[in-house]
Amino acid sequence: ITFLQSLGRNLFEHLSNVNLLHDHVLRDHNTCVFPLLEVNSVSGDPNSDVHVFRVSYGSTRNFLNKFLIGILRGAAFVLYNCTVEIEDLTQDSDRPEMGPTMPFQHAFQVTVHRN
């Protein structure tokens, strides 16, 4: 858990650093295929009681979006003592455009509530 907490002081920072972790792992395991995350603050501050941000997710593998939702909920609770509300924005007009190398793309609005 300490290693995972080192990725950030809160869930927003943690997710913002996941691509860096994946890049580091790729140095030694160049056959791995990782998803791509883009994280943008929508309202509030990451250290406040309520923070809203958007996560855009791209992958070469289908159906991992539900897995990501579970990871977000678990990481928020276990690592940062928070709860999250997650809204799927994929059907909205703000569908992410992460390029042709990421055929499966999803967007989520995450509202973090500090406990």
Task: Give the helices and strands, then pairings.
Blueprint: H1 2-5, H2 11-16, H3 18-28, E1 36-43, E2 50-59, H4 65-80, E3 82-88, E4 104-114
At a glance:
With 115 residues, this protein is of the alpha+beta class. Helix content is 32%, strand content 31%.
Give a written overview of the molecule.
This protein has helices at about 1-5, 10-15, 20-30, 65-80; strands at about 35-45, 50-60, 80-90, 105-115. With about 120 residues, the protein is an alpha+beta fold. The radius of gyration is 14 Å and the shape is globular.
What brief labels describe this structure?
single chain; alpha+beta; 32% helix; 4 strands; 115 residues
- Assembly of the depicted chains: single chain
Low-confidence runs of at least 5 consecutive residues? none
- According to DSSP, the number of beta strands is 4
Radius of gyration: 14 Å
Shape: globular
Spatial gap, N to C terminus: 19 Å
Helix content: 25-40%
Report the biggest beta sheet as strand number plus sense, adding barrel if it closes.
4 strands, antiparallel
Which structural class is indicated by helix and strand composition? alpha+beta
Average residue pLDDT: 89
β-strand amount: 25-35%
What count of helical segments does DSSP give? 4
What's the order of the H and E elements?
HHHEEHEE
Give the strand order, joined by hyphens, for the main sheet.
1-2-4-3
